[in-house]
């Protein structure tokens, strides 16, 4: 539909069936043959939304790799080349009135006003690449039909009106924002896993700011509650303490050291573990010393090393490898003794990764029976995503430097690898999402509703047998308090005993979910605002350069 009478400067007609009176000679004179802009498979097809405000896919997405050349699909003039919403786009207007758009580029090789020929390089892909086609009235067309030769518009220009839409007008920017708003497509998931850092982040925030994402999470949480209500342990039931000897391996989180930390406060005494069978994982390798209770973990064959906050911020891959070694050492020192892994925060990622990788190469001890994670960001931590975004965008290092200089982050330092690897778009989190948990291990995940460090909804893991968000007040203290909370102790006891988690009313489950998801949304929004502030000078400079040249 035309937006105004001014848009009536062209009349789009289709060959053959659309305008049967057009001769073959006239058709060939105005026909443009379009070629694929990249040599890569299509990973998501054309899915125009029913309403303009809805998400869908207004073009097609190719499974390109970062750095692949992106070429003009036909000759034309560049009417837009630059950033919108943090992503780079190029729009080319062709002589038949169509506009092709090349989105999610890593670099741009052309400038506004430049004329290009078919096959000329307009930029390089940042990962998955989006290709869109629009008619002069702004209608999105199927690019596959255009590339296959099934769509050949012929235009008639109205005298006195320049061809096409205003290259830098609001309509052009709206069309590019529409591309960013499209989500749920295979291309976004492809981008999250294979794209460049910035492209993964753009895809992530596009999904986070779509209401459909949160509705889907709410529906999933309700379905989980409905499934568990018929298989839960009532509050009146006591938690049995298993009579056989068992080993508990405790894993602490990011920024912790051998001394006091939340993971060490897990109530192993109430859970029935002998003090000599409680092992504290050391990020420096082996087990951590316990100066307060030297009788703990009397495993003479196990290496004992102290660790500090810097050790806990090493690459998560290294931590997982060291944890795998510890599990083998414990199993060798306690042959035939069941092993329960109780992990807090980042420790759950380390343990989850180590157990999955060990099983894949046949190194997982048979005695490992349970994995209980507490406040673990299985879906990635929004705060870590915000930090990683600042590390990626121009100007983002300035606010990070301020955070470091003020000591607001205490022992944490974004220049160490672990924080980036806890981002929602990291390769580690992608591996966690895809890697199954061995059948021999019962996996339970617990979160806190008001946790500002790890929002409760990101503690969900599709591989977990059960997931529970416990009610809590909103604050950073909810994260550490969760480990020693008596309700957490009860849920751990039920899990280790092979019983279902405790029953939770619908109202409690709904309040916990809504609180946790609200925290998650707020943190994503704060991150986006911070990134926008950091990007603002760079975008203004870029706009000045483009307008000057």
Protein model, in words:
The chain is of the alpha/beta class and 549 residues long. The protein folds into two domains: 192 residues, Glucose Permease (Domain IIA) (Distorted Sandwich), CATH 2.70.70; 318 residues, Rossmann fold, CATH 3.40.50. Helices cover 35% and strands 18% of the residues. It has 15 helices and 17 strands. Strands 2, 3, 4, 5, 6, 7, 8, 9 and 10 form a nine-stranded antiparallel sheet that branches. A six-stranded parallel sheet has the order 13-12-14-15-16-17, with helices on both faces. A hairpin with a 2-residue loop joins strand 5 and strand 6. Helix 9 packs parallel to helix 15. The radius of gyration is 28 Å and the shape is elongated. The N terminus and C terminus are likely disordered.
Topology:
Elements: E1 10-14, H1 24-30, E2 42-44, E3 59-62, E4 69-71, E5 76-84, E6 87-93, E7 99-108, E8 115-116, E9 121-134, E10 140-141, H2 143-147, E11 153-157, H3 170-181, H4 186-194, H5 197-208, H6 211-229, E12 247-251, E13 278-280, H7 316-333, E14 339-344, H8 346-360, E15 368-374, H9 382-392, H10 397-406, H11 417-421, H12 427-434, E16 442-448, E17 466-470, H13 477-484, H14 486-496, H15 506-548
Parallel strand pairs: 12-13, 12-14, 14-15, 15-16, 16-17
Antiparallel strand pairs: 1-11, 2-3, 3-9, 4-9, 5-6, 5-8, 6-7, 7-9, 9-10
């Amino acid at each position: 539909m035309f937006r105004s009478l001014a848009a009536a400067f062209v009349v789009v007609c289709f060959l053959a069936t659309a305008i049967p009176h057009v001769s073959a000679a006239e058709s060939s004179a105005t026909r443009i043959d379009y070629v694929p802009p990249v040599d890569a498979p299509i990973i998501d097809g054309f899915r125009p939304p029913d309403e303009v405000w809805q998400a869908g896919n207004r073009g097609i997405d190719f499974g390109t790799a970062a750095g692949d050349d992106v070429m003009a699909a036909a000759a034309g003039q560049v009417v837009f080349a630059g950033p919108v919403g943090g992503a780079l786009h190029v729009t080319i207007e062709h002589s038949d009135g169509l506009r092709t758009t090349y989105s999610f580029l890593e670099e741009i090789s052309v400038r506004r006003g430049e004329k290009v020929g078919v096959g000329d390089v307009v930029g390089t892909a940042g990962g998955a690449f989006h290709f869109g086609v629009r008619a002069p009235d702004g209608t999105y067309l199927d690019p596959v039909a255009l590339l296959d030769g099934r769509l050949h518009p012929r235009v008639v220009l109205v005298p006195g009106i320049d061809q096409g839409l205003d290259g830098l007008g609001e309509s052009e920017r709206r069309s590019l924002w529409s591309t960013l708003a499209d989500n749920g497509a295979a291309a976004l998931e492809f981008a999250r896993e294979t794209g460049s850092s910035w492209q993964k982040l753009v895809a992530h925030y596009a999904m986070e700011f779509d209401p459909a994402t949160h509705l889907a999470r709410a529906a999933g949480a309700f379905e989980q509650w409905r499934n568990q209500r018929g298989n839960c342990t009532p509050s009146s039931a006591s938690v049995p303490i298993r009579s056989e000897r068992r080993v508990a391996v405790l894993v602490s989180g990011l920024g912790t050291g051998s001394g006091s930390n939340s993971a060490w406060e897990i109530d192993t005494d109430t859970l029935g573990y002998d003090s000599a069978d409680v092992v504290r994982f050391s990020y420096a390798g082996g087990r951590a010393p316990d100066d307060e209770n030297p009788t703990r973990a009397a495993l003479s064959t196990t290496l004992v090393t102290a660790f500090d906050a810097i050790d806990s911020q090493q690459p998560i891959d290294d931590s997982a490898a060291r944890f795998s070694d510890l599990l083998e050492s414990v199993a060798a020192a306690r042959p035939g003794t069941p092993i329960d892994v109780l992990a807090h925060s980042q420790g759950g990622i380390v343990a989850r990764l180590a157990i999955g990788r060990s099983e894949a190469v046949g190194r997982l001890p048979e005695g490992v029976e349970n994995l209980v994670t507490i406040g673990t960001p299985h879906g990635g931590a929004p705060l870590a995503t915000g930090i990683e975004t600042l590390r990626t965008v121009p100007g983002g290092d300035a606010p990070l430097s301020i955070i470091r200089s003020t000591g607001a982050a205490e022992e944490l330092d974004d220049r160490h690898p672990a924080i980036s690897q806890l981002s929602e778009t990291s390769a580690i989190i992608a591996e966690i999402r895809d890697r199954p948990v061995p059948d021999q291990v019962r996996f339970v995940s617990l979160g806190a509703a008001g946790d500002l460090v790890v929002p409760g909804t990101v503690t969900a893991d599709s591989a977990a047998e059960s997931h529970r968000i416990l009610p809590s007040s909103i604050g950073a203290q909810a994260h550490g308090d969760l480990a020693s909370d008596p309700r957490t102790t009860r849920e751990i006891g039920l899990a280790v005993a092979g019983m279902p988690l405790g029953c939770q009313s619908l109202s409690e489950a709904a309040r916990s979910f809504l609180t946790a998801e609200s925290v998650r949304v707020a943190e994503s929004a704060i991150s986006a605002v911070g990134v926008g502030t950091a990007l603002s000078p760079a975008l203004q400079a870029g706009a000045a350069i483009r307008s000057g040249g």
